[in-house]
Design goal:
Layout lengths: L1 E6 L2 E4 L7 H5 L4 E8 L3 H11 L3 H8 L6 E4 L4 E10 L8 E11 L2 E6 L6 H10 L1 H4 L3 H36 L4 H22 L2 H12 L4 H67 L11 H24 L4
Parallel strand pairs: 3-7
Antiparallel strand pairs: 1-2, 1-3, 4-5, 5-6, 6-7
Helix pairs in contact: 2-3, 4-6, 6-7, 6-9, 7-9, 8-9, 9-10
Length: about 325
């Protein structure tokens, strides 16, 4: 367990032992933060009994695929959110998420993380950079955490936007195979679906916090309003990226249809050209006399008809851009 304590916005305890947490949490002049990483079910049940939490909160914390939410009880607030990032591997990169749950008590914030992938040091840095806001209480701690999470959402959305632009350029440059292109489109579409499930519910989380903390402190309320605006922008950006991926997929299908149509026209044009000598040789191969029958003139006449008709059809199809 990791912990810190502040008094009047200034850090007074850079580390907090487990035995000291109860006394510090009861001190109204102290703002306390405790952080648990990968707690076991037994540890969560012990914590719930100690704090008087409902069993559903323990279930939400331990469940792997819970939706982001904000729940207010009589003596505490519970929230759940997800930090997201793209892995550092080669293309196609995959979207990774890290669940962050928390309890907001009158003088303490308890965060519960599923893993170590989220950078809590960045959150702590933001808390210490604004002691004036931190002096307002646990609402400032919660704001700093949610603000960092939303900033990571923006960074991930920007990376996905750049990846979509690269695919748009590749679509018209023709530098990738169709199979590779479709695979990357589907990968982006899958990531956007997962990102949408994380980003869109954040509107409810931040608005829930904002409703209950609107009258506490004007500076804190403005910070939450600004955070809510960022959440709305992230949600709108995610929706626009989903539309762009859909358009990209449809455009790829349209270009494939155009290419298929061009191939079919070429096949039809060559079939028509080949049909001319077939018809002429079939006509001159009949068993009745015709002009030039049995004479060299007949041979040259058939050759001239074949070349003239075939050449005329070739010029016609070239003019129609079929060849």
């Amino acid at each position: 367990m990791r912990g810190m304590a502040w008094r009047d916005g200034l850090l007074v305890r850079p580390t907090v032992a487990y035995e000291e947490a109860d006394d510090l949490a009861r001190d109204p002049s102290v703002v306390l933060w405790l952080d648990l990483v990968e707690p076991t079910p037994e540890e969560m049940r012990t914590l719930a009994d100690h704090l008087g939490l409902h069993a559903t909160i323990v279930e939400d914390v331990l469940a792997p695929h819970e939706r982001p939410k904000f729940v207010r009880a009589s003596d505490h607030e519970f929230f759940m959110t997800y930090a997201v990032r793209l892995d550092g591997g080669d293309s196609p990169r995959q979207l990774l998420s890290s669940r962050i749950s928390g309890l907001v008590l009158p003088h303490a914030l308890l965060t519960i993380r599923a893993d170590e992938s989220f950078d809590m040091d960045e959150v702590v840095r933001r808390w210490n950079d604004d002691p004036g806001l931190l002096a307002t209480g646990t609402g400032a701690l919660l704001h700093g955490l949610l603000d960092t999470v939303v900033d990571e959402h923006f960074a991930t959305i920007q990376e996905l936007d750049d990846a979509i632009e690269d695919l748009e350029d590749a679509l018209f440059e023709g530098g990738r195979t169709t199979h590779e292109f479709v695979r990357q489109i589907y990968g982006l579409r899958k990531d956007l679906v997962r990102l949408r499930r994380v980003v869109l519910p954040m509107r409810e989380v931040v608005s829930g916090v904002l409703r209950h903390r609107l009258g506490e402190n004007p500076a804190l309320a403005r910070s939450y309003e600004d955070l809510y605006d960022h959440v709305l922008r992230a949600a709108e950006w995610t929706e626009s990226l989903r539309d762009m991926v859909t358009t990209l997929f449809e455009t790829n299908l349209s270009l494939q249809d155009i290419q298929l149509n061009q191939v079919m026209r070429k096949l039809a044009a060559w079939a028509a050209i080949i049909a001319v000598p077939t018809a002429v040789t079939g006509w001159f191969g009949q068993n009745i006399p015709y002009v030039g029958f049995g004479r060299p003139l007949g041979v040259w006449m058939s050759v001239a008809i074949i070349l003239g008709a075939a050449g005329g059809l070739w010029l016609l199809f070239r003019r129609l851009d079929w060849l």
